[in-house]
Write a structure and sequence with these properties.
The protein is mainly beta and 245 residues long. It is built from four helices and 14 strands. Strands 1, 2, 3, 4, 5, 6, 7, 8, 9, 10, 11, 12, 13 and 14 form a 14-stranded antiparallel beta sheet that branches. Strand 2 and strand 3 form a beta hairpin.
Length: 245
């Protein structure tokens, strides 16, 4: 990949490649909701969960998903719901294909919600280092007038588990993420959004965004103040590193 100076600045602002390479898991208390979930019958599905993200393995576990003692497991090609003993209750291979069905415009089941939550959380908690993964093409664009900072434009491979192939990341002058523009294609090609980062904190020397809000976006610049399509709250962040027992 051709070096992009702004990307290198952003990577450094979030803790750097060396520290990121040592991470084994990221854990946090997760609550999330909003219109995008309630309109699909899943308004309370992501409240009060414990998330464990394996960033280098593309794997996410959501403890408490669909009930006490249950766990939802996400990988790009399979989602599974397990009981407290680890027995599978439901699973689905190639879960993204499910969203091609017309009825998914109006209602999701628990495995649909698990797929969306899993890939989205994996993307959000691996930023900006997912932009340095093989096959991701990144270029730099000037900031919108008067906004300062800059923009990274990413083109993801077709098989990459993410919202859409083209995404734009707006960063401030220190290299921290302000806004993330994408189309949530599993919802629909009409679902253009601006994802606002409202607060962040560091854990293990790496920076993560702990308060987020997603609102509608039209074209490149028109961002509406509402409604809130998705809100995300992450608390009690913790990391485990590869050299830990």
């Amino acid at each position: 990949m051709t070096a992009v100076p702004l990307l290198e600045k952003v990577l450094d602002a979030h803790g750097g490649r060396l520290a990121w390479g040592r991470v084994r898991t990221i854990e946090a208390a997760l609550s999330s909701g909003g219109l995008a979930f309630s309109m699909h019958g899943q308004g309370s599905a992501l409240l009060g969960l414990h998330a464990r993200v394996h960033p280098h393995e593309r794997r996410v576990a959501l403890a408490g998903y669909t009930g006490h003692g249950r766990t939802g497991l996400w990988t790009p090609d399979r989602v599974t719901l397990r009981d407290a003993a680890g027995n599978p209750l439901a699973d689905r291979d190639f879960p993204r294909r499910s969203f091609r069905r017309l009825d998914r415009l109006f209602r999701w089941d628990a495995l649909d919600m698990l797929y969306f939550a899993g890939y989205a959380l994996w993307n959000y908690l691996t930023f900006p280092f997912l932009l340095a993964e093989p096959g991701v093409r990144v270029s730099e664009a000037p900031p919108f007038p008067g906004s300062g900072g800059g923009r990274l434009v990413a083109e993801f491979p077709e098989d990459f588990p993410t919202h859409s192939r083209r995404q734009v990341f707006h960063v401030d002058e220190a290299g921290r993420l302000l806004r993330h523009d994408y189309t949530a294609e599993v919802i629909g090609r009409f679902a253009t959004a601006a994802h606002l980062c409202l607060a962040s904190e560091t854990a293990g020397g790496l920076r993560f965004y702990t308060r987020r809000r997603v609102v509608p976006r039209f074209g490149g610049e028109l961002v509406l103040p509402g409604p809130t399509l998705v809100w995300i709250a992450l608390d009690d962040l913790g990391l485990r590193f590869r050299n830990q027992a």
